[in-house]
Amino acid sequence: MSSLSYPPKPRPGDRVAVVSPSAGLPGLFPHVYELGLHRLREEYRLEPEEYPTTRIMGADPRDRARDLTAAFADPTVTAVLATVGGDDLITVTPHLDDAVLRANPKPYFGYSDNTNVLNHLHRLGIVGYHGGSVLVHLGRPGALHPLTADSLRAALFGSDWYDLTPAAEWGDEPGDWNDPGSLAVEPVMFPGAGWHWQGPATVVTGRTWGGNLEVLHWLLAADRVAPAESLHGSIFLIETSEELPPAVEVYRMLRNLGERGLLAGFPAALVGRAKAWEFSRRLTPQEKTAYAGEQRAAVTRAFAEYAPDALLVFDVDFGHTDPQLIIPYGGEVRVDAVSRRISVRY
Predict the structure, then answer these.
(1) In a domain, 1, yes or no
(2) Strands 327-329, 128-130: parallel, antiparallel or unpaired by DSSP?
(3) Can you say whether the dihedral through the CA atoms of 183, 288, 247, 272 is positive or negative?
(4) Is residue 8 situated within a structural domain?
(5) CA distances from 237 to 71, 160, 234 (A)
(6) Which residues make Cβ contacts (< 8 Å) with residue 257, sequence separation at least 6?
(7) Least CB-packed of 39, 116, 253, 260 within 10 Å?
(8) 3 state SS of 86
(9) Of 127, 148, 163, which marks where a domain is finished?
(10) pLDDT category, 2, cuts 50, 70, 90?
């Protein structure tokens, strides 16, 4: 844990890598991708450098790894942004050149399937950034969400402590990327109810580890997770995907982490707001509320069994819902249950 270090930050005007180590969706939805690139240039004054596999669906894992390694190796590139997630990045990370990554640490931004890369960098001692998708967040219909925009700007360019803000409104029903006209329409949003705190009235400070729960489970099966004792003291990040895993599976995955000895070592956990709607599963508002409640109960049950004294904060906006706050992965976080405040150091 103590060997983790923050990479140098970019400055406005710099070149940044834009890569698709998971799915090459920019090739299928160029209108969304180009909007994200436009905002990267106009809102953040960064010049995106695209790599060969960025727009290619089903590119060979070795080629995707070659692009990601090249992005770290390029001395003119000062940060690396993933375009989107996917489901097979676990086949890419074994082909990365770790010597190059260690010698050229850079801020890496991604979430969902990019948990593979964030965990890989963590094991190399490099702090990454959970969040920030060129398609999903920079390409958001209507406009950038102000909380996402501010958090991403602070994470890209800043190194200080930053207070996360509970979303006054949130959404999990995105526009249809198959319809270019949908980019002009703001997403459906719902009133926010703030964060939900459970556990002792204490203050916990530590470095983060975790990410998308389904991907973490794959990583455990592939033996790509550090020994439990080396992660003790971490603040655990948990978020679930658009596949809407049932509560019983969320519990079982966490139970498996508990049996591995991981949960007992986490003094606190930040739990992302549960995404509860997808085009193939259009849950009603009542069904969405029930789904989120069942997931919260599953997480609570697992921690009650393996880490009963842990501090839990639910509905933190860092997962598959909108807005998305950037969380340093392996970086410092302070969870203050007394003042109900979460601060991250970018």
Answers:
(1) no
(2) antiparallel
(3) positive
(4) no
(5) 26, 20, 9
(6) 216, 220, 263, 302, 306
(7) 260
(8) coil
(9) 163
(10) low
Closest listed residue to residue 224, CA positions, set 124, 127, 119: 119
pLDDT in tens, 12-57: 999 999 999 999 999 999 999 999 999 999 999 999 999 999 999 9
C-alpha to C-alpha distances, 73 to 37, 96, 102, 301, nearest whole angstrom:
22, 11, 10, 44
- CATH code (residue 181): 3.50.30.60
Count of structural domains, the chain: 2
Domain housing 52: 15-163
Same domain, 130 and 224: no
92 and 226 in a single domain? The answer is: no
165 token code pair: 């803000």
User: pLDDT, tens digit, for every residue of 271-306?
Assistant: 999 999 999 999 999 999 999 999 999 999 999 999
pTM > 0.85: yes
Instruction: Tell me which of 133, 163, 193 is where a domain ends.
Output: 163
Give the pLDDT mean for 253-271. Answer: 98
